[in-house]
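Reopening this one. Same input as before:
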Amino acid sequence: QVQLVESGGGLVQAGGSLRLSCVASGTIRSMNTMGWYRQAAGIQRELVATVTWLGSTTYADSVKGRFTVSRDNAKNTVYLQMNNLKPEDTAVFYCNLRHLTNNYWGQGTQVTVSS
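Same output, byte for byte:
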């Protein structure tokens, strides 16, 4: 089993920055993919960014150029640096870890961007 704990959410003004962190614990298999998804009120959960074990990244079009995902395999940690935040980025951000058919989620951290 894998547990994921997010931190770093909060309230920020438009144009500001936040850095999210997610630490994985438990039985961590190598060659996994970690990443971030978000869910705004009344909207389905959507992909924000992912990073593979070897460092390949993917981003939603809406965050390209503003968000950067990275990971530290030795620490089983994934990060999301969010710059130039916009009110439409307001959502609960969830950490995710995938390995083969196994899919794990964190509890989520709230990010609120005021205009």
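So the earlier flakiness isn't reproducible anymore. For the record, The chain is about 0% helix and 60% strand.
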